[in-house]
Design brief:
2 strands; single chain; 6 helices; two-stranded antiparallel sheet; mainly alpha
Length: 205
């Protein structure tokens, strides 16, 4: 699947908005729950998501090389509000005319990338992080088929070399599906390609 530039920004917007919806469902007793990101509570996961939104927004405006733009907030006493503000910032930045034509400095990925590629990275990240939040809360993620298809196409292009995956790298190692899950859908395939084990996180709905 190769969405147009306008479609790519729109698909990313849907993934981000779904992540916002899910984060906003968390209650006071949920923030210290373990998340699918090993060693991270939901609060820490949302702090990471908040930092990434601000970092990508800065990158879209030519300021991504500044490490301070990618730091997690010190004050996460109201995680949902912090995340909501950051999500609005990145959607505004990506929505600016010509955003897909710019170079984005992405320090975690080791360099600069065309805007179209960078927004694609953000898209797949928020398909997965929306699921991370949903899984933590025992809920299902609600994303349209075109968002899931675009996310999977991007996930399939991420190098799978184990030497480039795991602690210290942007993505965990690929997880092979159990035999009973071999014919899973695009979300499950994306999750496994990026190191998640969806079978370990049952949902209530």
């Amino acid at each position: 699947m190769n969405p147009s530039e306008a479609d790519l920004v729109g698909l990313d917007r849907m993934a981000v908005r779904e992540a916002v919806r899910l984060v906003d469902l968390a209650g006071e007793d949920d923030w210290e729950r373990d998340s699918p990101c090993a060693g991270w509570t939901l609060r820490r996961l949302v702090a990471h998501m908040t930092a990434q939104h601000h970092g990508f927004a800065a990158a879209a405006r030519g300021e991504g090389q500044d490490a301070a733009r990618w730091r997690e907030p010190r004050d996460m006493s109201d995680p949902a509000q912090a995340h909501r503000t950051a999500a609005a910032a990145v959607l505004d930045a990506f929505g600016e005319p010509g955003s897909t034509d710019r170079e984005f400095a992405l320090p975690e990925l080791g360099g600069s990338f065309p805007g179209r590629s960078a927004i694609g990275f953000h898209l797949v990240d928020y398909v997965v992080h929306a699921w991370d939040v949903a899984a933590t809360l025992g809920l299902r993620v609600r994303l349209p088929a075109d968002v899931l298809g675009a996310g999977l196409a991007i996930a399939r292009r991420v190098p799978a070399d184990p030497a480039l995956r795991g602690p210290g790298f942007a993505f965990a190692r690929v997880v092979r599906a159990p035999e009973e899950a071999e014919r899973s859908g695009p979300l499950e395939e994306t999750l496994r390609l990026l190191g998640r084990r969806p079978e370990r996180w049952p949902t209530r709905e």
